[in-house]
Amino acid sequence: MRRWLVEAALAGTALALGSFFLATTLNEGDGWPIGVELVAGTVAITALIRYRRSRPVALALVLVVLGLLFGLPMGATPIALFGVALYRTAAVAVAVTAVHAVSLATVYLIALGPTRIYWEATTFLVLLHVILVGIGMLVRSQRRLVRSWAERAREAEQGDELRVEQARLAERERIAREMHDVLAHRISLLAVHAGALEVRRDAPRSEREAAGVIRQSAYEALEELRQVIGMLREPAEDRPQPTLDDVPALIAQSREAGERVELRLAADGVPAGVGRHAYRVVQEALTNARKHAPGAHVRVAVTGHAEQGLVVEVGNPLRAGGSGLPGSGTGLVGLRERVQLAGGRLDHGPTATGEFQLRAWLPWTP
User: Fold this and answer.
1) Which of 67, 92, 267, 309 could form a disulfide with 88 if both were Cys (CB 3.0 to 4.6 A apart)?
2) Between 200 and 228, whose confidence is greater?
3) What is the CATH number of the domain that holds 306?
4) What is the C-alpha separation between 241 and 115, in angstroms, rounded?
5) Which residue range(s) make up the domain with 72?
6) Quick check: is 157 in a domain?
7) Closest Cα to residue 157, out of 165, 167, 146?
8) What is the pTM of this model?
9) Considering the domain boundaries, does residue 236 fall inside one?
10) pLDDT of 10-65, one tens digit each?
């Protein structure tokens, strides 16, 4: 709406100035018939509205010629010169203004001769155009200054955001290091005690086997902890990530720890990224089952194809109580966020048959 108001105001100004120049020409008994003047004025004002932003130099040169031949188009000429000063460099604006001044002075000298009217008319028109061009150059400089201030403010804001993000990353790394120091010490003690129990000759064979599983799990926990800490320092592409092919090994580890897990894997050619998400879904589901339904029979099914997508389903009977293992309560929240970021869906909760079921759908995206 504002643009249309500006265009209307410019057209009205050009028409008013052109009418003044046309009336002056008619009073002196010169000029073209009024019909020709109206056609020339309409063409000049239409071109001014349409091309003053996109082609200001070409428009100004055309209107200079029309303004020297006709009276009504003279009103659009100063506005066209103002547009040159507004949308082009100062050198271009000065050059076009100089061409117009020289042309105007030459044509008027030929038509009027070195009379008083010639000097008055030439001085008035040249000063009018020079003043408008100067105003246009000032407006252009002011706009560039405002844009430079806005750019500096934006860069300063981005610098503040970058510093805040760097501070967050540094704090996360510090917390992760502290976590590594504490957990590594505790897990190492667990592995040492489990190893001692494993080599005791007077311990039953089942206890020694369980101690071996604990020692191996503690060792793997230490390795995974080191990998998590390494995520803060290394690009993710440099670290090997689990895929769907690693799910059977994950199930085997759970079985060695005493869980009863049934696996049905019916998906081939799964992209590595999708398989990694599926692995994490199964891993978190088995952890929850071990915490909240120890000893329950867990069913894991991973099925799908390229047209359907990948579906991961994990179910186990609901049981009162749990294993007593500590938990943050945010595992499923983080898992839902992971699945949603991958473009999938995650549903979980008790069913009517007295089971807890977790179902994740992942798009088959390479």
Assistant:
1) 92
2) 200
3) 3.30.565.10
4) 92
5) 2-151
6) no
7) 165
8) 0.42
9) no
10) 778 777 877 777 777 666 656 667 778 788 888 888 888 888 788 888 888 888 88
